[in-house]
Amino acid sequence: SADAGYAALLALAQQTQGAAPEQQPRLRRAGVESGLRFAKAFATDPRATAVLVNAADTQYQLGDAQAAAETAKLALAAKAPATPATADQRRVAWTVLALTSFEGARFADAEQHITEVLALTPANTPDSAKKHVCMTDEMRRPRPAASATAAPSMA
Questions:
Q1: Going along the chain, which residue ranges are E strands?
Q2: Would you say 82 and 42 are in contact if contact means Cβ atoms under 8 Å apart?
Q3: What is the widest separation between alpha-carbon atoms in the chain?
Q4: Displacement of CA 141 from its chain's centroid (Å)
Q5: In this predicted model, what pLDDT tens digit does every residue of 57-102 receive, in sequence order?
Q6: Which of 60, 88, 102, 121 is least crowded, fewest Cβ atoms below 10 Å from its Cβ?
């Protein structure tokens, strides 16, 4: 059942928090895999979109940008009968897409995505807004001709 699956996700998240630092990446990857299976098996469950957003954010933090972008797109595409993403969930998903686009040197996409992030960022969150404005300024800087090197990290 969806309740049992979600309970298992929560238990794994709790186990991950209490694990030794060297075990956390493996447990976080297991949490992502379990979350993706949950979202696929229970696509209409009201928690599925939140699980996808969390999976996308975790994939990005673990360095799997391509998978993070794909998962973020799935979360943003959630429509009835699934629960559509909340504004905060959409902001996280768009942030993942902005960062992965920027790091992949897809600057026009990154700027479009960061525009979505800014539209979803409450005006009363100065730290968050400052970070996004800095990202936007960085994306607008002129770039040298494309090369084989990767774009600078936003971390």
A1: none
A2: no
A3: 53
A4: 24
A5: 999 999 999 999 999 999 999 876 678 888 899 999 999 999 999 9
A6: 88
Cβ within 8 Å of residue 135, ≥6 positions away: 98, 99, 102, 114, 154
Distance between CA 57 and CA 104 in Å, rounded?
17
Tokens of 13: 């998240």
> What is the C-alpha radius of gyration for the chain, rounded to an integer number of angstroms?
17
Burial code of 126-151, b = ≥16 C-beta within 10 A, e = fewer? eeeeeebeebbeebeeeeeeeeeeeb
Round to the nearest angstrom and report the end-to-end CA distance of the chain.
Answer: 38
Secondary structure class of 3 (helix, strand, coil): helix
**What is the average pLDDT across 115-131?**
75
For residue 76, CA distances in Å to 79, 92, 93, 126, 147 come to 8, 10, 7, 25, 31
**DSSP codes, 9-41:** HHHHHHHHHHS-TTTHHHHHHHHHHHHHHHHHH
